[in-house]
């Protein structure tokens, strides 16, 4: 026990049919003094037994397992022993699809399975995994610890001095942990004739953004695609930034706007970075930009939302109650750069209202 924490370690159950993966993940989790590997399981059936006996705080769950697979196991967990589950998935198209199904079924988040005995990504994956386990544990106790730290509720209202904003010509949206489900909740409610384009940075590993864009496109009236370098942005289209690339915009003299993708890291911890995208949108569109910051760990997007705010654009943040992790929006709220803080379900309304969208009258 760490006396500086004054709180118990987070108990983690690791479920994977691969002995190598169980060992690798156990070592990662065990390396953090805040975490404790309560046990491991090699199958879904064994996992259900271990959950009943060990009562872990967080579970890491393999997507592909013989017998009861990850998705089926997750559904049993949510029905019998509801608690945060982090899916461990490879970047194949099939597993990406199952991962998104898992998020819809209640998984907290996922981490990419890119481990091998010689993998150079182990450290990066370890940092991602440990942060998400802690975020999951904190989120599961939000009713206890977070409520005591909350400032007076400010959701559904103006929190910055009220100003009159021009109708935006473009929307930049940043999101991370909890984002796939949140985007699947809000984007399908937007009309197909939305008068502006939307650029989205969703923190995802390589191999996931294209299947995610395809999935959203099937659900939405607006068109959704993975962004391509040199593409001309169009109204009514949602562009998902591809994993491993920063996305920026280039306004042409003829007023066309081109998408630019870059593999230059620019000292950013995330690629794509919400900050990089939003700063570019602020520089190119000034007061005609709209920034939306949603659920996620960390502070990516704070500089970008600040740039949009300073340029006179409209800024909207997701409220604490509807966030899976109130990290990215919290930083922006505490900086005082959000014009509105609203529940996730109200974000489509804020988009329609800002763009002066009017539903077609029915005769």
Explain what the structure shows.
This protein is of the alpha/beta class and 363 residues long. The chain folds into two domains: 137 residues, Rossmann fold, CATH 3.40.50; 198 residues, Methylesterase CheB, C-terminal domain (Rossmann fold, 3-Layer(aba) Sandwich). Helices cover 36% and strands 20% of the residues. Strands 6-15-14-13-7-8-10-9 form an eight-stranded mixed β-sheet, with helices on both faces. It has a five-stranded parallel β-sheet with strand order 2-1-3-4-5, with helices on both faces. The chain has a two-stranded antiparallel sheet with strand order 11-12. Helix 1 links the parallel strand 1 and strand 2. It is elongated. The protein starts with 9 loop residues before the first strand and ends in a 9-residue tail after the last helix.
What is the secondary structure topology, with strand pairs?
Elements: E1 10-15, H1 19-30, E2 35-41, H2 44-54, E3 58-62, H3 70-80, E4 85-89, H4 93-104, E5 109-112, H5 122-140, H6 142-149, E6 157-158, E7 170-175, H7 179-186, E8 198-202, H8 209-219, E9 223-226, E10 237-240, E11 246-251, E12 257-262, H9 274-285, E13 289-293, H10 302-310, E14 314-318, H11 328-335, E15 340-342, H12 347-354
Parallel strand pairs: 1-2, 1-3, 3-4, 4-5, 7-8, 7-13, 8-10, 9-10, 13-14, 14-15
Antiparallel strand pairs: 6-15, 11-12
């Amino acid at each position: 026990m760490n006396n500086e924490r004054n709180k118990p370690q987070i108990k983690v159950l690791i479920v994977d049919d691969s002995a190598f993966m169980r060992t690798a993940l156990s070592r990662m989790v065990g390396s953090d003094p805040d975490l404790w590997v309560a046990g491991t399981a090699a199958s879904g059936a064994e996992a259900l037994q271990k959950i009943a006996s060990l009562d872990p705080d967080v579970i890491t769950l393999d997507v592909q397992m013989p017998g009861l697979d990850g998705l089926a196991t997750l559904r049993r967990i949510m029905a019998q022993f509801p608690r945060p589950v982090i899916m461990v998935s490879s970047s194949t198209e099939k597993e990406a699809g199952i991962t998104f199904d898992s998020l819809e079924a209640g998984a907290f988040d996922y981490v990419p399975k890119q481990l091998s005995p010689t993998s150079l990504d182990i450290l990066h994956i370890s940092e991602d995994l440990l942060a998400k386990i802690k975020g999951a544990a904190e989120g599961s106790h939000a009713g206890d610890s977070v409520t005591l730290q909350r400032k007076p509720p400010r959701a559904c209202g103006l929190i910055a001095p009220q100003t009159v904003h021009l109708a935006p010509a473009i929307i930049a949206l940043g999101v991370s942990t909890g984002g796939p489900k949140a985007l699947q909740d809000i984007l399908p409610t937007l009309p197909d004739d939305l008068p502006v384009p939307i650029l989205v940075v969703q923190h995802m590993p390589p191999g996931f953004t294209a299947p995610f864009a395809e999935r959203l496109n099937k659900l939405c009236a607006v068109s959704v695609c993975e962004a391509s370098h040199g593409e001309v942005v169009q109204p009514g289209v949602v562009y998902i930034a591809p994993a491993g690339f920063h996305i920026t915009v280039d306004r042409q003299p003829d007023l066309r706007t081109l998408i630019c993708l870059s593999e230059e890291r620019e000292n950013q911890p995330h690629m794509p970075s919400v900050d990089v995208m939003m700063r570019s949108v602020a520089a190119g569109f000034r007061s005609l930009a709209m920034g939306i910051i949603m659920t996620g760990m960390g502070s990516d997007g704070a500089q970008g939302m600040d740039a949009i705010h300073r340029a006179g654009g409209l800024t909207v943040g997701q409220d604490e109650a509807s966030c899976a992790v109130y990290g990215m929006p919290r930083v922006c709220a505490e900086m005082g750069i959000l014009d509105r803080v609203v529940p996730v379900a109200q974000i489509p309304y804020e988009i329609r209202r800002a763009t002066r969208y009017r539903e077609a009258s029915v005769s």
